[in-house]
Amino acid sequence: MSTPPRTRYSLAAPPPARTHGPRVPSAAVALQPLAAGEEREVLDFLGARPLHTVMMASFVRDNGLVSPLNRGTFYGCRDARGELVGVGLLGHTVLFEARTDAALAGLAAEARTVHTTRRILGEEARVSRFWRHYAEAGRTAAQVGRELLYEQQRGPVGVWDAPPALRPATPDDLSEVAAAHAELACRESGVNPLAVDPVGFRARTAQRIERGRVWVWVEAGRLIFKADVVSETPEVVYLEGIYVNPAERGKGYGLRCLMQLSRALLQRAGSVCLLVNEQNVRAQEFYERAGYRLQSYYRTIYLRP
Questions:
Q1: Are 232 and 213 in contact (CB under 8 A)?
Q2: pLDDT tier at 28, thresholds 50, 70, 90
Q3: Which of 38, 189, 226, 242 lies 20 to 30 A from 256 at CA?
Q4: Would you say residue 150 lies in a domain?
Q5: 168, 77: one domain
C-alpha cells in the first residue's frame, strides 16, 4: 500500500494523574479494567456491531480478557445502572467501542496514561472524536492514514480456477511469511517490525501460523501468495497482510487465491472484511474484482515512540 500523508499535531497538556480503583471520567460513567469471567458480557456488547468490533472480539475469544497476548488491557465503561456503555483495548494498538460520548472520553483519558501505544485505529468519525480527548496528553502523531473498509458477505461469488496449492502455512514457512508481512507493515507505517521487535514479531507470526490463520501458496520454496486471518468471530473474519510476490504480479494469481480463500472463510462466517489505504486505487480495484464492496471509512493514527 502507498504511504498515507503525514499530519502533525501540537499536544501540550500533561496527562491526568493516575488514581486507585475505578476511574470516574464523568458523572455518567465509571471506568475500570475488565476481569476474567466477564467475557460473555463483553462479547454480547461487542456483538451489536460485529463488523466494526471483530478485532477486539477476536482477542477476547482467542485469549480471554486478561492475557499478555492481547498486548494491552481491556477496560470497560459502565453507566449508573452498571451496564457496559464502552469497551476499549488500550495498549500497543488502541481499539474501542463506545456508545456514549462520556464513555469515549473516559477511554481516551485512560489511554493517555498508556505510554506503549503505537497506533489508534477505528472508524474515521469516532477516531477523530477520540483524538480530541486523547490529544491533551502531549503525544504527537507521526502520521495519519485513511483506510477503506471492504467487506464480502456470504452469497454467490465469481468462479475462478482454484490455485493448486493454496494451504494453511506451516512452521517451515515462518521466515518467508514474516518477511512478507514485515514488508507490508513497513510500507504502511514506515516502521519495519523485524527491525524494531524481531523476536516478538516472529513469535506473533508463528502463533498465527500455529492457529491455522495464515494461508500461503508456495512453489519451489518461493512464496507466491500470503494472507493472514488476523481476527475471527462466528460473524466476521478480518483479513490482513495480503501479499503477492512482485515477480508473479499481473498473472491473476492473487485474485484466484483471494477468491478461493474468501469462499472457504464464508463457509464459517457471515462476512469477510479487510482494510485498504485510500490512496491505493489499484488495491481497491483488485478487491472489488474479488467481490468485496466498500462499507466504511477508517482512520489510523500512528504515534511517535
A1: yes
A2: low
A3: 189
A4: no
A5: no
Q: Which residues contact 176 (CB under 8 A, 6 or more apart)?
A: 216, 218, 222, 223, 226
Residue of 67, 57, 50, 38 whose CA lies nearest to 231: 57
Note whether residue 280 is domain-resident: no
3-class DSSP string for 247-280? HHCCCCHHHHHHHHHHHHHCCCCCEEEEEEECCC
Residues with Cβ within 8 Å of residue 197, at least 6 apart in sequence: none
The cell for 239 is 483479513
Residue 223 lies in a domain: yes
Q: Which domain holds residue 249?
A: 155-269
Domain check: are 84 and 165 in the same one?
Answer: no
pLDDT of residue 48: 98
In a domain, 6, yes or no: no
DSSP 214-251: EEEEEETTEEEEEEEEEEE-SSEEEEEEEEE-GGGTTS
pTM: 0.85
Query: What pLDDT was estimated at residue 155?
Result: 73
Q: Which amino acid is at 93?
A: T
Same domain, 260 and 190: yes
Question: Mind spelling out the 3-state secondary structure of 26-55?
Answer: ECCEEEEECCCCCHHHHHHHHCCCHHHHHH
- Across all residues in the chain, what is the average pLDDT? 87
Looking at the 3D structure of the chain, how many domains does it have? 2
Q: What CATH number is given to the structural domain containing 169?
A: 3.40.630.30
141, 163: one domain: no
Q: CA nearest 33: which of 19, 41, 23, 25?
A: 23
